[in-house]
Design brief:
By secondary structure, this protein is an alpha/beta fold. It is built from 5 helices and 5 strands, in the order βαβαβαβαβα. It has one domain: Rossmann fold (3-Layer(aba) Sandwich). It is 35% helix and 17% strand. The radius of gyration is 15 Å and the shape is globular.
């Protein structure tokens, strides 16, 4: 239950991390769509254990790590890139998502290629993504501007299968994933 997939040098692995615990989240739909539409040379892995992480405590950040933290870091370890999508709560990052990021400072995201999709359909979440940019700077992640996109998605754009149905939105999501894969491939990841 905790092991990450083994690294295969022929495939670019992109870890998809959402910031919402909500059932039917638009952010999760965006990431699931990215996974479904990934190119043949991209393995998009959806991280689904946000709610399992313990609250960050430096006293717990040592061996043996709590299993959910070890699982997160193992998945980060085999990923060549990370694609985030998160809602905004109270003008910033949701607590559970910030907690995940706290577990990656000092390890996990260092040197990783990263981008995000902001699917806010009401023009919000700008502060959230500026905060994410700051946190990623502290983690040493390499932000790919071409993969940092605002792609408005409304609930009506999501089909019964939980994926974004609109072809133009799917195309934009695919562009972000491709930008990450190209950068990660250029770094040999």
């Amino acid at each position: 239950m905790g092991a990450a997939p083994e690294r295969d040098e022929k495939i670019c692995r992109i870890l998809l991390i959402g910031g919402s615990l909500r059932e039917g989240s638009v952010n999760t739909a965006v990431l699931k769509t990215a996974r479904a539409d990934a190119a043949a040379n991209v393995e998009a892995i959806l991280y689904e254990r946000l709610g399992d992480l313990p609250l960050f405590n430096p006293d717990l950040d040592r061996d043996p790590l709590p299993e959910p933290v070890a699982h997160l870091r193992a998945n980060l370890g085999v990923a060549g890139a990370i694609l985030f999508s998160t809602p905004e709560y109270a003008g910033s990052l949701p607590g559970a998502f910030k907690n995940l990021l706290d577990w990656t400072v000092g390890g996990g995201l260092y040197g990783k290629t990263a981008g995000w999709i902001n699917p806010s359909s009401h023009g919000g979440s700008g502060g959230t993504y500026e905060t994410l940019r700051i946190v990623l700077g502290f983690t040493g992640a390499g932000i790919v501007e071409a993969a940092c996109l605002k792609i408005p998605v409304q609930r009506a754009d999501i089909g019964a299968d939980g994926l974004v149905a609109a072809p133009d939105i799917r195309k934009a999501i695919g562009a972000a994933l491709r930008a990450l894969a190209v950068r990660a491939a250029g770094k040999g990841q």
